[in-house]
Fold:
Amino acid sequence: MRQTKKHRWLACSVVPLWFLAGVAPAQGQCRTTVPTYSSFLHLATWPDDESPGWHEEAQGLAHDEDHWYIMQREAIWRIPVTHNLSQDASSFPHRSIYSCGLGSGYDHFGDGDCYQVPGGGPRYVIVPVEGSGQQGLIAFISADDTLSCLGAVPLHTNQGASAGWAAVDPQGLLYSSGEDPASNLLYVYTVNWSELVSQPPSLTYVGTITLLDENANPIAFSDAYPQAGEFSPDGSLFYHLYAASGHEAVNEGINVFETANWKRIKRSSQHDMPFLLNWSYFYRDEPEGLTFWDLTDCGAPGIGGELHVLVLNNNPAIPDGVYIRHYADSICVDGTFTGQSDWGKPHAPFKTV
Structure:
């Protein structure tokens, strides 16, 4: 079994990671300075039950070097990392699902991913699309201010009609799953990325991967639905988000798998730190999406850590609100720190734990 890096509880002087590395990142651009991907330590929540314009039926998160991509059910947004996500975002580019030419009946974006075409090619947001009675699609959207839709291609019928999420691994393979609440399968596709210039690329269905528990048995998700998936930047870990609306479900939350053998190594908790992902069953909160992005010293207001998980307050009796939970692979502590921010990172350590 591949050994994952252990959490580091450090006594830190207030030294930014870019200083330790010798190079400061450009304003608004983020890069991984210390590539450890076991981000199981909850830092904070921001936004925290806010309504910034992209909150209604928010479905997913993705990113490029300096922008968030946020999927709503019927729209996709491109928001600079330097923007405070708790504040109004209406001035930033966004595109309606109905302007993408996807065909009649398609009305639901899911949690997507951002991928750069190999060889230094352009970046695209890969977004799953659903519609009542329709076969699930993967849409390809330009990762720039135009958010131009190049079109979409259908997923294999073996996956069923649902496509709640899609993720691309470092080798360029595309993964998704249906919405069978008992399913422990990932559906895998090759993508002809060279075609992605003026048209959507062709997908070839490869087969399935069975997710395993810690004892190498097929994992049972009972009535929890797959909501999102994301690979660590090196591809060694796969973060998979499951949830049920309005009640507790077996194996809900963030499940983390080693891709060397697809065995689970960690699961988040509704109640206990440090890997805490809590949401309200009473208010019908739903975890919806996640992305992996090292935001240490990147000018992201109120945000730090590497793993970011979107939770939607989906109570039909009140307006929607959004939360984003943030997680890190290490926590720094400095009792002498006098700054206002308190992120548990070298540039803004916790004062105590």
In short: Confidence is low (pLDDT under 50) at residues 1-35.
